[in-house]
Specification:
The complex is a heterodimer of chains A (316) and B (303). With 316 residues, chain A is an all-alpha fold. Chain A has helices at residues 2-52, 56-59, 74-83, 85-116, 122-134, 137-150, 158-161, 172-184, 189-196, 201-212, 214-230, 233-238, 251-259, 263-269, 271-277, 280-311. Helix content of chain A is 76%, strand content 0%. The chains are: A mainly alpha (316), B mainly alpha (303).
């Protein structure tokens, strides 16, 4: 009897061990695959950073791949000057901040209406939300342009900013959708309690609902910042005064500099060296400077954003 | 205050709802319905005066021009369609796989998630354009090649094969870089699947492979639909899309607003057609939340 039991346990142990080996091999393969993938995904970033600190000599030396021989911080100074960083950073910063605030205020508000209330025409309105997502901006950009030009809004940030306060603007429909999904998954108990205590509906929304909607806000903040910062299409149409352009489109200035170096830098560096001073390394330093604000804000919001993605229940 | 005292609870409820969505109603009228209406009118006519939108009716002239007279529009259009048909399925497959990988119980899960999101942060706008301008998609390939595939082997197969392999890798790399949002969407879908389903399947002796097809895929089918639609739209409104540049140059450089509007509508109708095709084809395979939860909820059907 006891022998049987022992044998039984032994055979189980053997199974477990082989299972472990199989499991470990599988696990190792998974990690390897993940590392490969991580490399591909990190590549643009790594390439940008590494190239941005290369000297001219390293740039054309094929033996230098990932580790530059010398670190050239001069690239960053040149790129900073060429971008006229402070001024255009301010432009992009103002635009991104105001549009993101607009999306947060309007989309959380509208999404709440769609999630909690029943009224006639709700289905039609919500299908308009989806339609506004599907329709490419280009289809209606011409009349929009004419409207804004009649309002004398060209060469201001208003054509980008004002629609965000009405649930439109860059992918506004998506944010309404995200907030609606979030509120749908939220239990109504708190709001009911507030209503019974005689709290008005707007106050209930402001004091009870908004504070617990943090995860939906985090998702919207990150997506809205990234999309607005990198947006090139609408600004390129509504703004043609060079001093009002956004920071990312200033990268073209560096490219222009690579082709025809401006006088001040010629005077500073000297004719002979100018060609080696302004190159792709400077361009990459510029791209890094341009993306830096987005990268830092993501680094700060990263944890809440990922949690938000899990909790908003976009699927549900 | 006296007035609101009189209205019944149900009416009040409706009114409150309307107040919440009122910004959207205003926005829709100004920024959506009105431009949409003008744009349709514009595509069938000629703009006489900017102020007041005086438009002369011309009939199908602009559309005829797009399909028959303009020799560059149709080839450009076909090129965009071809690119979309290649890229969308690849993006979907890769992002499901990657989402499943980072959903597994592994170390540095958070780190990998962040890494997969980095190309999205760089954006598909000006920054990525500069990077692609330096040919980094080819750089990735040359790195892979020098480590995995010996150059001699490829040369032996002939230049056509080299080119094919190179462009294949180029596409894959761009596909991977543009699937950040999709990975997140699938990840959130995967995490909403109750673990108990997998546990009971395991007890019944199901393999991983079976569980993927019988549990994971049906459970994420609603998010799949959402992601496919999102990907199609993203690919049609991408920066590298020549049609968009064409519309822009027609409207704002040659000042042919009417023609640009007509092309825009052809383009939009095609997207709608494609999206509804996806809905029809996949609609039968989608497990709605109501079905999964026993028919009590009916939220999914709205869209």
């Amino acid at each position: 009897m006891s022998e049987k039991i022992i044998n039984n346990i032994k055979s189980k142990l053997v199974i477990k061990r082989t299972g472990n080996i199989k499991h470990n091999v599988f696990r190792g393969a998974t990690y390897l695959l993940m590392l490969d993938m991580a490399f591909v995904f990190l590549f643009p970033f790594l390439y940008m950073v590494v190239t941005s600190i290369k000297s001219n000599k390293d740039l054309y030396d094929f033996t230098v791949n990932w580790v530059p021989r010398t670190i050239e911080f001069k690239n960053y100074i040149l790129a900073y000057k060429a971008l006229e960083y402070p001024r255009f950073f301010k432009n992009s910063f103002i635009m991104t901040t105001v549009t993101t605030i607009g999306h947060l205020l309007s989309c959380s508000f509208i999404g709440y209406g769609f999630a909690r209330y029943n009224f006639s025409g709700k289905k039609i309105l919500f299908s308009l939300v989806i339609l506004s997502l599907i329709i490419p901006v280009q289809t209606i950009i011409v009349p929009q342009y004419i409207i804004f030009s009649n309002l004398k809004w060209l060469n201001t940030y208003l054509p980008m900013i004002v629609p965000t306060f009405f649930g439109y603007g860059l992918k506004g429909g998506l944010f309404i959708f995200i907030f609606r999904q979030f509120y749908l998954g939220l239990p109504t108990a708190l709001e009911d309690a507030a209503k019974i205590d005689g709290c008005g509906f707007l106050r209930t929304y402001w004091n009870i609902v908004l504070p617990i909607a943090k995860s939906a806000f985090m998702v919207t903040v990150v997506l809205s910042i990234v999309w607005h910062w990198n947006d090139f299409y609408e600004p390129s149409i509504y703004i043609n005064l060079p001093k009002l352009t956004m920071l990312p489109s200033r990268l073209n200035a560096i490219i222009a500099m690579v082709n025809t170096p401006p006088e001040e830098i010629l005077a500073e560096v000297g004719h002979a060296e100018v060609e080696s001073a302004i190159n792709n390394a400077v361009l990459m330093a510029g791209t890094f400077l341009v993306t830096l604000p987005v990268l830092t804000s993501f680094a700060f919001l990263q944890k809440q954003f990922m949690q938000g993605i899990e909790r908003t229940g976009i699927v549900e | 205050m006296k007035k609101s005292f009189k209205i019944t609870g149900e009416k009040r409820h409706r009114l409150e709802g309307l107040i919440f969505v009122s910004p959207f109603i205003i926005g829709t009228l100004i920024f959506f319905i009105f431009p949409l209406f003008v744009s349709i009118k514009l595509s069938f006519g000629k703009l006489k005066k900017m102020e007041g939108f005086v438009i002369e009716w011309l009939g199908l002239d602009n559309y005829i021009r797009a399909f028959i007279l303009d020799t560059s529009f149709i080839p450009m259009f076909l090129q965009v369609i071809r690119k979309t048909i290649v890229q969308v399925p690849l993006i979907i497959v890769f992002s499901i796989l990657l989402a499943m990988l980072i959903n597994k119980n592994i170390k540095f899960k958070g780190l990998f998630r962040t890494i997969f999101f980095i190309p999205f942060l760089l954006g598909m706008g000006d920054v990525m354009n500069q990077l692609l301008g330096l040919g980094i998609d080819k750089h990735v390939f040359s790195f892979v090649e020098s480590n995995l595939l010996p150059r001699e082997f490829l040369v032996y197969l002939g230049p056509k094969v080299v080119e094919a392999v190179e462009s294949f890798f180029g596409i894959i790399v761009v596909v991977l870089w543009s699937s950040g949002v999709q990975i997140l969407l699938f990840l959130s879908g995967l995490q909403s699947i109750p673990v108990s389903l997998y546990e009971s399947a395991k007890v019944d002796g199901a393999t991983e492979w079976e569980m993927f097809w019988k549990i994971t895929l049906p459970m994420i089918s609603p998010i799949m639909l959402l992601t496919i639609v999102y990907t199609i739209i993203a690919s049609f409104t991408d920066i590298s899309n020549p049609i968009l540049a064409y519309i822009q140059s027609n409207a704002f450089r040659s000042l042919r607003f009417e023609y640009a509007a007509a092309i825009g509508w052809v383009y939009f109708l095609f997207i709608i057609l494609l999206v509804s095709l996806v809905f029809i084809l996949l609609g039968n395979h989608i497990y709605t939340t109501s079905e999964l939860k026993g028919g009590a909820k009916n939220e999914r059907k709205d869209y």
